[in-house]
Structure formats: structure tokens, C-alpha cells
């Protein structure tokens, strides 16, 4: 995973096609393609994501309980092996949680888990629920792809009056006054460009993609390095 960084300066001087990444320049395939072809890599990738997001999930479940009040159903888009959805179900047993990810990914959800598992692409369809939950998903994609996914999210949820919303866990660059957090945000921004062709966004960038996808309002709640963003139809 470290080798592609050696090609970053070369990559920045090239006129490359949309979606081409430093990672792909090094290995000849995207990280997503490698995950599709290599089940061992998929397991390692999911474990890394789970470890990275565990602190954020703990903070969210302890400090943002009101965000989940009145909900009956939640779909975790890009939910990987179900770690986040299972944690939400344990904290809020009244919420029926669906783990939604690519078919080869959701096979890693443990048997007997208290969640429903659905395979598919978030670009084509998202199962209906009161809330669409996405943790560390949007930063993998450029603005155009994010708008496509958010439009699918809007189709999946009810009106704001009926409790519909999207909950996004991501970095909001510029939202912190701490130097260490700002530096970390910049590093993650570079990492997303290298591995995925995505980026970490400032608030005005988030606002634009929400508006372009047809949403009317949003609210940001800081959670340390990352933030919880509620997006309303």
C-alpha cells in the first residue's frame, strides 16, 4: 500500500483519464478491482476500515443517540462486513439494520448477525429505509459519483417530515481549529487521491454535492477527527 506514493509526483504531471489513480498506475488495476479478485485482500481491507472507524463509531453511539430516535429502519451503504450496522443494532435494538455492499463484500458479514444482508451497487439502487447511513464512503469518490449515490439515497428515504435523512460519517476539512487535525485532514485528502481518486471535502464542497443531488438542508456535528453530517431531503 505504500509503494504507490513513490509515483505521486509523476502522476500529478500526467494528463490521465477520469477515475485513474496512482494506485492503478502502480499495479495496473484499481483497488476495488483487486478487492473483487482477491478475497484475502477484501478481508484485510474490511478489518482495517473497522479498526479505523471503531473510535468514531464509539463516539457516535455515545454522544449522538438523539440522531437515531424515532427510526425504525436503517441501511448501511458500503457497510462492509457489517461491523457498524451490528454496533448500531446493539445500541438501538428497535432499529432494523440492513448491510448493503457489493455481493462479494457482504459474504463477509458473520453468520447469525442481527442484521439483514443485501448485495448490490449503490450507483444502481439502495434499499428503502428511514435513514441511509454511510461511513467513510463518500471520500472514495469524486463529486460527480457522489452526486449519483446521493440521488439514489434520496430515492430510498421518506420525506424529512416522515423522518427521512442521510447520515454521513466523514472528514469536513476546515471545520477544526486544531493544527494536528488540519494536518491529518490534508494527509487523508492525499491518501484518497492516491488510492481511490477521491478526496476529503470542505463544508462548501459538501454543500454543493448535497444541493446538486436535490437535498435541501444539512447539519454537521463534530466527532473528533471526523464529523457526523445529517442531510435532509
Summarize the structure.
This protein has nine helices and nine strands. It is of the alpha/beta class and 233 residues long. The protein has a single domain (23-232), classed as Vaccinia Virus protein VP39 (Rossmann fold), CATH 3.40.50.
Corresponding CATH architecture: 3-Layer(aba) Sandwich
Overall domain count: 1
Helix content: 40-55%
Strand content: 15-25%
From the alpha-carbon coordinates, what is the Rg to the nearest angstrom?
17 Å
Summarize the biggest pleated sheet: 7 strands, mixed
Write the element-wise H/E pattern from the N-terminal end onward: HHHHEHEHEEHEEHEHEE
Walk me through the structure.
By secondary structure, the chain is an alpha/beta fold. It has one domain (23-232): Rossmann fold (3-Layer(aba) Sandwich), CATH 3.40.50.150. 42% of the residues lie in helices and 19% in strands. It has helices spanning 8-12, 22-27, 31-37, 39-63, 83-91, 103-106, 143-156, 179-195, 203-212, and strands spanning 73-77, 96-101, 116-119, 131-135, 165-170, 172-173, 201-202, 217-223, 226-232. It has a seven-stranded mixed β-sheet, sandwiched between helices. A two-stranded parallel ribbon has the order 6-7. Strand 1 (73-77), helix 5 and strand 2 form a beta-alpha-beta unit. The longest helix has 25 residues, at 39-63. 34% of the residues are buried. The model has no long low-confidence stretch (mean pLDDT 87).
Amino acid at each position: 500500500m505504500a509503494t504507490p506514493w513513490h509515483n505521486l509526483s509523476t502522476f500529478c504531471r500526467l494528463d490521465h483519464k477520469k477515475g485513474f489513480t496512482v494506485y492503478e498506475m502502480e499495479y495496473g488495476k484499481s483497488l476495488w478491482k483487486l478487492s473483487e479478485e482477491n478475497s484475502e485482500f477484501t478481508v484485510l481491507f474490511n478489518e482495517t476500515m473497522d479498526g479505523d472507524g471503531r473510535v468514531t463509531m464509539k463516539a457516535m453511539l455515545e454522544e449522538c443517540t438523539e440522531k437515531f430516535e424515532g427510526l425504525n429502519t436503517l441501511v448501511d451503504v458500503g457497510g462492509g462486513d457489517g461491523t457498524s450496522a451490528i454496533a448500531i443494532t446493539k445500541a438501538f435494538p428497535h432499529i432494523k439494520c440492513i448491510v448493503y455492499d457489493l455481493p462479494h463484500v457482504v459474504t463477509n458479514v458473520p453468520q447469525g448477525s442481527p442484521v439483514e444482508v443485501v448485495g448490490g451497487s449503490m450507483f444502481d439502487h439502495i434499499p428503502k429505509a428511514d435513514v441511509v447511513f454511510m461511513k467513510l464512503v463518500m471520500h472514495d469518490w469524486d463529486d460527480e459519483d457522489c452526486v449519483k449515490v446521493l440521488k439514489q439515497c434520496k430515492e430510498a428515504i421518506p420525506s424529512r417530515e416522515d423522518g427521512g435523512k442521510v447520515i454521513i460519517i466523514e472528514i469536513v476539512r476546515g471545520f477544526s481549529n486544531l493544527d494536528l487535525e488540519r494536518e491529518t485532514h490534508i494527509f487523508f485528502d492525499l491518501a484518497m487521491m492516491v488510492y481511490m481518486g477521491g478526496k476529503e471535502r470542505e463544508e462548501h464542497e459538501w454543500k454543493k454535492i448535497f444541493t446538486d443531488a436535490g437535498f435541501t438542508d444539512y447539519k454537521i456535528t463534530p466527532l473528533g477527527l471526523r464529523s457526523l453530517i445529517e442531510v435532509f431531503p
